[in-house]
Fold this sequence. Notes:
- This protein is α/β, with parallel strands linked by helices.
- The protein has 10 helices and 24 strands.
- The strands form 5 sheets. It has a 10-stranded mixed β-sheet, with helices on one face. Strands 2-3-6-7-8-9-10-11 form an 8-stranded parallel β-barrel, surrounded by 6 helices.
- Helix 3 packs parallel to helix 5 (184-201).
Amino acid sequence: xxxxxxxxxxxxxxxxxxxxxxxxxxxxxxxxxxxxxxxxxxxxxxxxxxxxxxxxxxxxxxxxxxxxxxxxxxxxxxxxxxxxxxxxxxxxxxxxxxxxxxxxxxxxxxxxxxxxxxxxxxxxxxxxxxxxxxxxxxxxxxxxxxxxxxxxxxxxxxxxxxxxxxxxxxxxxxxxxxxxxxxxxxxxxxxxxxxxxxxxxxxxxxxxxxxxxxxxxxxxxxxxxxxxxxxxxxxxxxxxxxxxxxxxxxxxxxxxxxxxxxxxxxxxxxxxxxxxxxxxxxxxxxxxxxxxxxxxxxxxxxxxxxxxxxxxxxxxxxxxxxxxxxxxxxxxxxxxxxxxxxxxxxxxxxxxxxxxxxxxxxxxxxxxxxxxxxxxxxxxxxxxxxxxxxxxxxxxxxxxxxxxxxxxxxxxxxxxxxxxxxxxxxxxxxxxxxxxxxxxxxxxxxxxxxxxxxxxxxxxxxxxxxxxxxxxxxxxxxxxxxxxxxxxxxxxxxxxxxxxxxx
Length: 503
């Protein structure tokens, strides 16, 4: 199969915000306890943070973390998670029917965030709590001293404010599974008034209004139209969440789902612009895609180990094992944040450890990475600069609700500082390699720095037993030929091609 991709130096999409390489830590299952935090582990530091996990987080290239939830946040009282650990309450955690010890709380998270060199993105409870709870936690975290909650933080041993810049106004409030679920009108009014009050405490903070929890919600996109009518003037982002599964419908359908995600992004962007026009506003509203991932059926060997009885501490929950096939959808979903870099400024892969995660840990044991770790790390390391528009000539297929799905999914980033073009690409075809002619107009290709590819003879292969089973390798034969770069992309493969250029 042949394909041609043309990019031009003068035709750009936008600049990449490094926060699209963020992840998500929720008090769910083993994400926190025996995930990032395990006192007594052989690699744990004095704070109980697993150093082996911290190394993988840095290798992955994570730039930000959304915390503490998730569904968890809708029953969360931040006061439970601060102060002397021995005095913190053990709570019934209703969202996931577990016991929350509160051993790991706000100040522990912020110490971990500093060690991980990530930007915190904090969510407030608009499910069972409201304005006062949100205002008081901003005071605790961001005000220097001289008030009830800022002085409380100092008494807890944290002299300087945390200075958390980005705050989410609740989580998935459109979902009837959410504790404290609200109608669009109810949420819009509450979020508006909460936003106003939070910015009174700290005018420098940026706020995220809850958007739709997934693209097939019955209230989508009316939810955005109604809620933003209230919150538009007070917030800086609207959130989107999305997970895809449906492996039983076949590989073509499975991989085509990233095109639904593109429609989702375009639709919500359109709603934002409608509200902007309706309000005669000059303000641009951006998207925070602060929960996303592939929701894969758990591996049978992992599922068999799960004790599903309620009210455990850090139970094994939804510990999904990703395959090569899952990784290709994951990569296409992630490339969408680059394709729409002009409007998407934050994206949080869900979750960081153990649940739908790139990083897996063994209690009192080792750490290993799933295949999805690699596309994330490649984009986080090399996807910096300007996204270029592209014109593509490639075969496409129809599958169910999806029409004209291109076999080649790709995006190009121009890194001026490094004088290189980086092409990220997925070959969705099971049968055929793609012979690619890549034409970067306005550039002189000097040399191919590297072509990294990842594929496997078995699309269902995982890293569960052999932790190195699915991993990237250097691909030979990709070369510059005149003003073209010629490459061969294997069937069902993830690819990164870096090209040194002059202008």
